[in-house]
Amino acid sequence: MNICYLGTGAWGFCLASLLAKKGYSLTCWSIEEDQVKQLTNTREHEMLPGHRSIGDMTFTTNLEQALKNADVIIESVTSKGVRPVFEQIKSLGIPKCPIVMTSKGIEQNTGLILPEVVIEVLGEEVRNQIGVMSGPSFASDVIRGLPTSVVGSGFTKDVMLQVCELFTNDTFRVYPNADVIGVSYGGALKNIIAIACGISEGLALGYSCNAALMTRGLHEIKKLAVARGCQVDTLYGLSGMGDLCLTCGSIMSRNYRFGHLLAEANSPEKAKEKIGMVVEGAYTCVSALQLSRELGVEMPIAEAVNKIVYEGFSPKDAVALLMQRAIKQEHL
To answer: Could you say which of 190, 223, 274, 328 is catalytic?
Structure first.
C-alpha cells in the first residue's frame, strides 16, 4: 500500500514511522524545506531524538509527487493549515482514496471540524472517503512503543475499520467509533481545557482546582458537541475524557505547557515564543467561542482562557471572574 502522508511534525513523523514499520510505503510531504532535507539525511526528527525512521519512507516538498499513486492520504498538519493544503490538493485533482484526519481543531470563522473543512473544499462526494483518528497519545510515547489506545472513526463503516486496521499494532490499539462529530469535538476542545489546567498549575492553585477544571471542562465540551449532534457517550471515551486526562495532566502537552508559561510570564507572546510551535488550543479557543455564541452555549472556562490569551487579562483576574460566577445546579 502506498501512503501519502501530509505533515512532518513530531506527530506526523511518529505515525508515519509506525506505518512504515508495518511495511507500508510512505511519501511524506511538508512545506518546510529545511525539515525535509534534515529528515532525508538523518531519518530522525528533531523533536524525537534517538528515534530513526525504519522502512520505506521518503520526504518531499512536492505535493504532486506525494499524491501520486496514493492508496491512502493521511493528514497531520495544523488545523489552520488544513484548508490551504486541501485547496492545493483540489487543484491537482479530487482524490479517490480514503483520507484520514489526525489533526485536532475547529476552523475559525466557519465553526467546521476538520473533516467538514475537507468536505467543503473537495466537495460532498468525498464524505464517504473520510476517516478520523483521535485519542490520548503523545508522539514520544507512541514512537517508543509504549501501550497506547485511541479511536478510529469514519463517515462509513468501511473507512472506519480501515483506519483501525491501518494503525493498529502490538502496542497501538485503535478502537472503532462511528461518531465522527463526537470524536472530532473531543479532540479539539480538550486543548482549551489543557491551557486552563496549565495556568492553574503555573499559579499553584492545587490539584483540587485542576480536578474541577477538567470536570467542568468536560461539561463544556459536552454541551457544545451535543449541540452539534454528537453522541454524548463518545465524550466519556478515549477521544473525550481519555484525551482530556492526558492533555490536562502532563507538561509534555504543548497546550498545558503553554498555559503554565502564561501563568509565569503573563504574556501570550512570550509563552508562544518559548513553545516554538503552533498551540492548537489557542487557535481553537476562538473557533469554539464563535460557535458557542452562535448556538447559545455557555463556555466560561473557554471564555476565561480567551480573555487571558487575546484580551490582556491577567491569569489571576480571569480565575477570580470564574470563581465569582453564580452557582447553579450541577447538570452532567
So the answer is: 190
Q: Are 208 and 257 in contact (CB under 8 A)?
A: no
Q: What angle do CA 104, 241, 133 make, to 5 degrees?
A: 35
Cell 508562544 found at: 272
Beta bridge partners of 12: none
pLDDT tens-digit series, residues 246-289: 999 999 999 999 999 999 887 899 999 999 888 999 999 999 99
Domains and CATH numbers, the chain: 2-178 (3.40.50.720), 188-323 (1.10.1040.10)
What CA–CA distance (Å, rounded) separates 94 from 127?
A: 12
Residue 141, Cβ neighbours under 10 Å: how many? 17
pTM of the predicted protein model? 0.96
Q: Is 68 one of the catalytic residues? A: no
CA 324 to chain CA centroid, nearest Å: 32
Whole-angstrom distance, CA of residue 127 vs CA of residue 138 = 28
